[in-house]
Design goal:
The protein has about 375 residues and is α/β, with parallel strands linked by helices. It is built from twelve helices and ten strands. The longest helix has 30 residues.
Length: about 375
Amino acid sequence: MSLEDYRGREQTHLKHRVLHEYLMGWAHKLGAGARRVHGRRKLWYVDCFSGPWQARAPDGSDTSVAIGLSALQKAQRTWASNGLYIDVGAIFVERNLKAFRELQALVAARKGDVDAHPLHGEFGEKLGEIQALIGDDSAFVLIDPTGWVGAAMKYIQPLVAAPRRDVLINVMFDHINRFKDAPHEFLREQMRDFFGLEEDDLPSALGEDALMALYREQLGRVCGLPHVADLAIPFVQADRTKFRLVVGGSSPAVLKLFRDIEYKIVGTEAPRIRDVAAQAVTGQLPLGLDSQPQNVRFVGQRERGLEEASVELLERLRQDGEVQYGALWPPLLRAHHIREQDVADAIADLRRQGRVVVTGLAPGKRRVLDEHGVALAMA
C-alpha cells in the first residue's frame, strides 16, 4: 500500500492499514491454533461491501479486496514454510454491477491459490450463500459500507454466531453524525437497523462517544460478542473523526490484537501521515517536524485510560479478592484505549510498590500471565 496512491484520502490509508494488520494477526493466530485441530482447517475472509471504490493503484493494491487476498496468501506461505498447510477462502459481495465487473477482474488477477467467490447482490440477500460457503469454518468478516444502508446488525449476527469468527465494522461516523437526528421516518428506520434497535429510535443529540458506546453495546448484545472495542480514524487535515472502526469477537485475543494495532497505527503512523499530507499541500515542513509527531487526541485517551484502568483494577481486587489475570485485562481493554502490555506493566508497578501480589509466578519470572492470580497485598 503506497501512501502516494492515497493522496487526498489518507484516512482511507489508515483504515486499510488497520485492516491489513488485523487480518494478518488474525490469520496467524488461527493458523497456529490449527496445529491442535485434527484434519485441515479453512480460514475465510468475507468482505461484505467490496467495491472496489476509488482505487488508484494500477494493480488495485489500495483496495480491501487486494489487502484481504494478499494477507491470506502471506499467512498461507508462512504456515507452509513451517509444514502447516491450511486452506484459505475469500468471499466478496458487491451490489453495483459496474463495480462488480471490476471486482471480478481484480479477484481473477490476484486470487492465486485462494478459493475466491465474488457475489453480485445486496449483502443481506447473500447471507445464505455466504453461510453455505463458510459452513463451520473460521471467518473474518469485514463490514465497510459507503454509508450505513445495508449494514444492518441483523445481517451481521448470523455470520458471527459460530466460534472463531471476528468482525471489523467501519462506522462511517462523519456521515452518520450528519443524519442521526434527522426527523424523516426512512432515516430513523435505517438508523434503527444499523444500530440493531428493535423498536426505539436512536436517542437524540448523542455525542460521538455516547453514540459509539451505544453501537458497541448493541453489537455485543445483538450478535452475542463478549469482546467489543473501537478506535477512531481522524481526518488527516482536520481535528475530527472520519471513521470509527469497531471490532468484535468471542476471544479476548481480539482485544489484545486490536489495541496493539491502535497503538501502532493511530498513535504512531497517523501523526506522521498527517505531517506528510500537510507538506504535500503547503510545500513546507510542519513546525516541530524534528520532534516525534503525536496524535494529541489519542495521547489524551491513552493517558486517561492508564489512570482509570489502575483505579478500576484495584477496585476489582477489593471487591472480588484474588482474580486471575486473564479475567482482569479484557474489560480494561474494552473500556479504554490501552494495551494488554500496559495492564501488565501497571501490575508490575503495583507489585514493586507492595500493593498487589501475583500468585503462581515462577521464581525469576516477572511477566504476569493469564493463569496467574492477582490480589491486593495484605496490610
